[in-house]
Amino acid sequence: MDKIPQLEIETRIAKLQKILVQQQLDGALLLWNSDIFYFTGTKQNSYLFVPQSGDPVLMVKRGLDRGIAESFVKDIVSIKSPKEIPSIIATHGITNLTKIGTELDVMPVNLYNFYGKIFDQIEFSDISPAIKQIRAVKSAYEVNIIRQALKIMDEAFSLVPSLLREGMTEIELAALFEAELRKRGYAGVCKMRAFNQSFFYGNVCSGKSGISPSFFDGPVGGTGVSLSDPQGAGWKIINKNEPIYIDYTCIYQGYTGDQTRMFCIGDLPEKLKKAYNDAVFIKNEAVKSMHPGVLAEEPHILALKLAEELGYKDNFMGYKNNQVKFLGHGLGLELDELPIVAKGIKTKIVTGMTFALEPKFVFPEGAIGIENSFVMTENGPECLSITAEDIIYIK
Amino acid sequence: MDKIPQLEIETRIAKLQKILVQQQLDGALLLWNSDIFYFTGTKQNSYLFVPQSGDPVLMVKRGLDRGIAESFVKDIVSIKSPKEIPSIIATHGITNLTKIGTELDVMPVNLYNFYGKIFDQIEFSDISPAIKQIRAVKSAYEVNIIRQALKIMDEAFSLVPSLLREGMTEIELAALFEAELRKRGYAGVCKMRAFNQSFFYGNVCSGKSGISPSFFDGPVGGTGVSLSDPQGAGWKIINKNEPIYIDYTCIYQGYTGDQTRMFCIGDLPEKLKKAYNDAVFIKNEAVKSMHPGVLAEEPHILALKLAEELGYKDNFMGYKNNQVKFLGHGLGLELDELPIVAKGIKTKIVTGMTFALEPKFVFPEGAIGIENSFVMTENGPECLSITAEDIIYIK
Questions:
Q1: Which domains does chain B have, with CATH numbers?
Q2: Nearest residue to B209 (alpha-carbon basis) of B176, B174, B177
Q3: Which pLDDT tens digit goes with each residue over B73-95?
Q4: What is the complex's ipTM, to 2 decimals?
Q5: Is the peptide bond before A339 cis (omega within 30 degrees of 0)?
Q6: Cβ–Cβ under 8 Å, residues B327 and B254
Q7: A224 touching B (Cβ < 8 Å)
């Protein structure tokens, strides 16, 4: 399996250390899976300490041999309990700590109190905003992995006409579609950083299912197969002449591709065809308006204006009181990375940032829209999705 | 879709309120998805306040109509921001709060600080141990759902001989097997409460893949398809005459069934056949030793003793330095519920508790073992798994 190259790891650690210096932190204690993977290349059960200067120390509780084989971090040692962290890092010359950064956006209170006892007299500071910023800007290596994720998506989407038939349930189509992604290397859990948010593969909605909102903070919910997981494909039978909305992630080597395409058995009402063309228009206008340094709110403000002008005030990004307040989101090791493309967000979208743009409309008759994945380049957003954009009609 | 019955909801709320009285808490503010679903029957984006007495108030941020349709809680209201919680509950007569319980085992530090400002001058206490205890004891309604999950698993396991062929990859078999679970209603993300733990469907390991440890705290890891998700099925080709280990969850209506069965194309070495029989023997002895009120450590202590006597000291529940320290775990809305069946755990296993027992051995040649799901009854553990236990040989 592909290892994250040594130069990638060293560059990432160097970026973090630069911020540790700026923030006058003696080091960073990283515990969150996705961060440990990002900075080490391994996701064995471990704890990572990155000092302000010098080599990081990866302490592996379980899977030491795999950790050593998988990671280019030099100092990888065994640990039995996190209580040993201070003494282990001391043997690596890391002593006299007064203030360290950790991931307070995800660390539970009880665990924080536990680490407070281990690191007695040491002040913790939230390093997560800095980590999110570092992770938001992708290297060519990372962009290439996301490109591969979208290649897999393209293969799976191209098979939909052979999987889809009138009278099957949404969940049956979802099962077959997901299997196509999975056998090509869909790696597992779609990771999210926000509290309580989780996501399973993606969403198949047909016709009126599209109007169901969900816990998940996305424009289109879906009924899901049970009230315990009220989002995505449900038990509804797929009929002729209704929009079939397929919005999926592909997690490849940890990185997320995200794409939506529309299908239909038969034909769609003109209203929905027009809405789809308008969604593509809004996506294209948003892309045209973006350049390195654009504020993340600008494409959303433009899209809101266009959607309203086109008469979709109650339909854009959800139906009426269940609308969501963004046009896109960052993509990487987590589905909810920076930038958030949303009104009010002043983050600059710089070269190397990867993100999805997903203008969508929801009507009582169903959900319709498009989503592509992009990387910001010097010349503006480059589309990483390679699947044709037309609605696929199956006769 | 099936709603959680009104009596279930009322009984659960009453149990929580009894604990609020015991702990002298004015109420509980519940934010964690699985807890909100357990106590309300809906998982729309919401906040739940349960006062020490009187009706709970469910405040729905998104999906109000679905929340009202899905839940038997009487007071369900709209909310725009969690900042409104104190004023909303005040309009429901809930005032003069001094000490409230919340889920400090999962609530991130930053969110805790945010709620600390909203609930100025109010002390938070950790209600999660009580919630875990309540949730550990299942009603007949809940046990019946887990029974249905295991019925689905039985159907999927019975199809393995038709899916499996020599020369396919583990991930290909996993994709096909998962699709069989999914189309029968596998609901989505397999939920875990522990920090950083996540799980995707289950695990297909063939031959030497079985020795790979993983981040996940289970006896058998698997290589996974990438270093970002180093567990479960990988790219290894499935060969003749090696153990094919299939350990899967089935999430049905939110509840988890968990089961492991063994398959083989051709025949297995006598050593592995004997190990499998010994795993079944240990499982049976553990079951025989269990009765209502047994301490959760006892079956594990017995299993450790038997495994060592049988010569599996280095193989039981993982290989050498990657062994895990339990025999089983609770099953419910989360995969890591109580009871933890592990040495040192003095929890009493009482009637209604549901759990998996999974004696397994790991050798350089592969992983082998069995796992069934159980509910504790007055007469001891009742097996909820209905799949025959023999290794399935495919010629």
A1: 6-135 (3.40.350.10), 137-394 (3.90.230.10)
A2: B174
A3: 999 999 999 999 999 999 999 99
A4: 0.96
A5: yes
A6: no
A7: yes
